[in-house]
Description:
By secondary structure, this protein is an alpha/beta fold. It has 13 helices and 13 strands. It has helices spanning 11-19, 34-40, 56-61, 80-85, 98-113, 116-126, 131-137, 156-167, 203-209, 227-232, 250-259, 278-281, 297-315; strands spanning 2-5, 23-25, 43-48, 67-70, 89-92, 148-152, 171-175, 181-187, 193-199, 212-215, 237-241, 262-267, 286-288. Helix 1 (11-19) runs parallel beside helix 13.
Amino acid sequence: xxxxxxxxxxxxxxxxxxxxxxxxxxxxxxxxxxxxxxxxxxxxxxxxxxxxxxxxxxxxxxxxxxxxxxxxxxxxxxxxxxxxxxxxxxxxxxxxxxxxxxxxxxxxxxxxxxxxxxxxxxxxxxxxxxxxxxxxxxxxxxxxxxxxxxxxxxxxxxxxxxxxxxxxxxxxxxxxxxxxxxxxxxxxxxxxxxxxxxxxxxxxxxxxxxxxxxxxxxxxxxxxxxxxxxxxxxxxxxxxxxxxxxxxxxxxxxxxxxxxxxxxxxxxxxxxxxxxxxxxxxxxxxxxxxxxxxxxxxxxxxxxxxxxxxxxxxxx
Length: 316
């Protein structure tokens, strides 16, 4: 049987699938050609990340499709319920990229509190002529230790982020309408660990209390953070979104950054991908990455082998 990994798959995933008797195709097929390619090549499994969409049109056009797999957590680029109604298995890898995303959250947090994103732009331009001026501009750094991190969505990735925050000595609070409380276990290199219980609170109280806010929620119909929510936050708050574009009102965010209400933002995802707004791209108070939360070698290895394992167990 043939597997089309249209958005790529790790070498370990390919080897695991080939060992299970599958032929893996890693040709990148254009969105509008996916259905034709699947049918012409008798593909049984289509694997995607966030780029390729598997909607009703492809599902209807491909009667031989047995599995749709998403390398990662969010399934908003797949018509999941419709696929299942047609007898197609839909799989994903919710646990594989948690640590990678959590580490990126802290990359943005560290960048924000020490102005690294802006400093890295300006040092090559002015480092030799305005060293003292830049030193003064970036002299008001903030320590994360002792501050309060508000985690919106305390699922797998939220918990992984909370663990890192606890290891840094931060206070962690959370808001999650589906998880009233969770025990978070922080493991250390020598086998020791600590466990702490995080109890969900209201979004409003989290926004008022947090020094820094990180979002870990699926795609939404509306904004989680807009003008009203920004207004009740602490002055000088830092906001990170490595979850989904469209959960923050970017117009309101830029306004809050310009006024100083928000000290910095860290964005891995954007309302308009793959063409973020220029007002976002040019803002020196925003640390930005191009939707790479799960893009580490370790995470891609885990994703590939987990997808392979699920496919083999279903079709093997």
